[in-house]
Amino acid sequence: MWGMVKLCSGASRGEDRRSGTGARFGVKRPAMTSDDFRQHVETIIRAIRELPACLAVEHWHPGEVVVSGPDADDFLHRVSTAPLRGVPPGVGRRMLFLDAKGHVKAAATGWKRAEGWALETELGQAENLVEHLEWFHIRERLEIRNTSQNSRKILLLGKEAESTVRGITKSQPEFAVNSAGLAERQIDLDFLTEQDQQTNSTLGTRELQNHAAAWARRFDHPLLPTLELVCPTSQEKHVWSRLRTTAQVVSQDECEWLRVLFGMWSYGRDVTEERLGPEVTDDERVIGLSKGCYPGQEVVARIVSRGHVNWRLRGLSLPAGPKLAPGSEILVDGKRAGWLTSVANVPGTHLAVGLGYIRREFDILGKILLTDAGPVGVHPLPFGLESPG
Question: What pLDDT shows up at residue 181?
Fold first, then answer.
């Protein structure tokens, strides 16, 4: 018998509360055919190709925590999951922070600088990250500061993203090439108001550097060129004014489907304290398997030696529908095969993309789960968008 569709506004008694609330759609069976998956991929690629030459949107992760000082590198290497020793300035790394049981307490993208690291996270998580780091900070020669209010972050998406950045800087930024595909470069904005000049003249050398520093960050996404501008708060109005003449300014909601495609986790929604680090990712650049001890490392080692986790965060493509929402469950003949944590419609199509956790027996990348709600494609993160042969 095929599994039946059950649509409801919330989870029934006894269900795992981690899934949240939302619709439930029953899965008939895992399918090994690739036709529907290929159609999903081609639909998403067409939507990307129809985007304007450059989109400008406020970053989803505007929070920032700076860890600076002689011991900053060694400290973060010991308390995060990422292998950070020897990372040169100008290179970025994604990282998780676990508790002793392997659960995720925080997530960040770190940018190596000469004086330490800038950790990019969501605004509401910045202070939590500071508290987590301070818990481990004993005698290390370093300083941990929440600098979220000092700067503003803008994402530029599209084939003209780099030329747009060149239009508001005094020189073209050159980024370091690295395996993680994350690079940062300090830049000089080519406009400075009289008020800014007067403000700068009253600041000391270090304060002046912190006040005036602007940065460009490049993400080597396989889907479309992506750059991030980090500008002083005092310059935000001028940057947006310039961008409105060269890019199409859009809201975060309009770009939510791109956040999903990039696999840009939202802590508290896609990643929570209930999740184990290896459930979030198996990328060894994020969770180093040979870096030595860090909080939760023993749990990670046991999981790796066992060979699997029960759930994995994946990208999902599925037919768009009004009942889809974070918490919508995927059922296999009444058995829970997964649930959505984020979902967004792909503009101009009848397709939606989402992030969600899939149980390991249904976690077949590049394949389709046939559901009563339509075919659901299972993708790596970020979405690779490579059709099966």
Answer: 87
The architecture of the domain spanning 55-246 is 2-Layer Sandwich (3.30)
Contacts (Cβ under 8 Å, ≥6 apart) of 249: 55, 56, 57, 240, 243
pLDDT value of residue 26? 61
Task: Please choose, from the candidates 380, 329, 322, 382, the residue with its C-alpha nearest in 3D space to the C-alpha of residue 352.
Answer: 322
If we measure between CA atoms, which residue out of 77, 16, 56 comes closest to residue 245?
Answer: 56
pLDDT at 324 over 80: yes
Give which of 203, 168, 208 is closest to 189, Cα–Cα.
Answer: 168
Angle at 259 between CA 210 and CA 82, to 5 degrees: 60
Considering the chain, tell me which residue range(s) the CATH 3.30.1360.120 domain(s) occupy: 17-51+265-379, 55-246
Q: Give me the residues paired with residue 376 across strands.
A: 369
The tens digit of pLDDT for each residue in 17-50 reads 344 445 666 655 554 456 789 999 999 999 999 9
Measured distance CA(68)–CA(114) in Å, rounded:
9
Q: How many CB atoms lie within 10 A of CB 388?
A: 12
Architecture of the CATH domain 17-51+265-379 = 2-Layer Sandwich (3.30)
